[in-house]
Amino acid sequence: MIVIGIDPGSIVTGIGIVQQTQMGLRLVTQCEIRTRAYRTFNDKLKKIYDEILKLVALYSPTHISLETIFFSNNVQSALKLGHVRGCVLALAISQNLNILEYSPKQVKRIITGNGNASKEQVAYMVRIKLHPSTSEFSRIAYGWWRLLSSDALSTKNIEKRINTCLENNITTFDHADIYGSYQCEAYFGRVLKQIPSLRNQIELVTKSGIKLVHPDFPERKRKIYDLHSTHIVQSLEASLRKFGTDYVDVLLIHRPNPLCDFEDCAKGLTSVVETGKAKYVGVSNFSAWEFETLQSFLSIQLVTNQLEISLCNLKSFTDGSLHKCIERRATPMAWSPLGGGKMLLEPYDELGRKRLDMLVMLSRKYECNITQLALAWLLLHPANILPIIGTNQTRRIAEASYAVQIKLGEEDWFELWEVSTGARIP
Ligand SMILES: NC(=O)c1ccc[n+]([C@@H]2O[C@H](COP(=O)([O-])OP(=O)(O)OC[C@H]3O[C@@H](n4cnc5c(N)ncnc54)[C@H](OP(=O)(O)O)[C@@H]3O)[C@@H](O)[C@H]2O)c1
Questions:
Q1: What interhelical angle do 394-401 and 370-379 show, nearest 10?
Q2: Which DSSP letter does residue 407 get?
Q3: What percent of the chain has pLDDT over 90?
Q4: To test ligand 1's pocket by mutation, which of 165, 183, 336, 370 has the most ligand atoms within 8 angstroms of CB?
Q5: 179 flagged as catalytic
């Protein structure tokens, strides 16, 4: 079944096309029809009609789903909305589409459980696909890299931290085989083994590809990168044992390797997906061309590139790596989205001072704190950057999750861009 969902409007009409598959719902495409530039109302209706007709011809939906009309105080707007709906309904009838209608309250109830939820609460619940073919992940993820620098290593404390994340809609957890000198996954796994029902409530991301010198591997004389299929499979199997689960949601290649045999690396990634050990695969710290080279050896999609992205590290905005994600419909994940905390502390240079001053100024405007603002700045980017926060303080997890409710204005986005690059836009 393919459904074309339409949120009609006389200025912007939002469209999403979804397909019911054996794996669940899949987002086929989404777009907007903008009609502000059309002079007469009839021209706007014609534009909406023509564009939807093109989509129907292209994707052959069987159903059309429309939001029912709601009565606002503005009668003119309600009437115009009625005309747009009439135009869409006429098209649906002429194309023999089954018509489904939902009230805004029904939609809110389905997403949040409460029909009277605010727009902010709806935004708060929104989840994201890493690629149109994947299941959903939380809009902000939590990373366990710093776990061993905290003194809260008891299973009880880790469980508490996981629960704080879940209470704040953070369900995606980022790991790597090497974190905490190969120990972090095992600490996390103790909780998973105690509470097996947790596994279905979370998404696990882990990484492979770095070999550290470590007493468990006496044959290693120095740190190297190893992206051979055998290492990829073996390290994921070790991660699964530590987690006490039989699959991760995403396996990432941790870093590119100048000596990479891409064909063999692709063979390893394909094998972990085919054997069900990983639902999806992706990369981390890859340049655009490294991403494309590996993708060219794969028939499955790389669903993400986990990159260092923050107001302190803007490289990916201009080196093509973010744009490669957009081109490949892969959602980038941002590691150290707060610059590892350094952008929030006393700045050590002039640029840092100006950036912090701007963050403080804008945080007053948006009635939030600077952490939330720095994350909201990333969230506004059209690549749908998914930040991975790494605080060891539960209070800060809850605070950071509020960032998804802040919609930064584009002018303020550019203010932060300019102070962070240290240059006026031309
Ligand atoms: N793919 C890769 O190569 C790669 C590399 C690095 C990291 N990662 C992933 O990314 C995750 C996040 O990285 P990250 O930990 O660097 O992220 P981050 O959220 O940018 O930084 C976290 C650090 O910032 C500090 N911090 C947070 N809020 C603060 C505030 N208001 N004032 C002062 N300090 C503050 C935290 O200290 P407190 O603990 O005291 O709050 C913590 O030390 C990692 O856990 C890991 O999963 C991936």
A1: 50
A2: -
A3: 81
A4: 336
A5: yes
What is the reported pLDDT for 180?
Answer: 97
Q: Is the pLDDT assigned to residue 278 strictly greater than 60?
A: yes
Sequential DSSP letters for 62-118: SEEEEEPP---S-HHHHHHHHHHHHHHHHHHHHTTPEEEEE-HHHHHHHHHS-TT--
CA of 63 relative to ligand 1 center, distance in Å: 45
Same fold, 2-102 and 128-421: no
Entry pTM: 0.81
User: What is the reported pLDDT for 123?
Assistant: 67
Q: Which residues line ligand 1 (CB under 6 A)?
A: 143-146, 174, 284-285, 306, 335-341, 344-345, 371, 388-393, 396
Q: Which of 179, 182, 187, 280 is catalytic?
A: 179
Q: Where are the domains of the chain?
A: 2-102, 128-421
Distance 397 CA to ligand 1 centre (A): 11
User: Which pLDDT belongs to residue 126?
Assistant: 79
Q: Which amino acid is located at 243 in the chain?
A: F
The atom of ligand 1 lying closest to the CA of 337 is: 20
Side chain identity at 32, as an amino acid letter? E
Question: Which residues, including other chains, have CB under 8 Å from residue 159's CB and lie 6 or more apart?
Answer: 191, 194, 195
pLDDT in tens, 159-170: 999 999 999 999
The CATH architecture annotation of domain 2-102 reads: 2-Layer Sandwich (3.30)
Task: Calculate the CA dihedral of residues 298, 304, 305, 311 and round it to 10 degrees.
Answer: 160
Provide the pLDDT confidence category of residue 22 given band limits of 50, 70 and 90. low
CATH architecture of 128-421: Alpha-Beta Barrel (3.20)
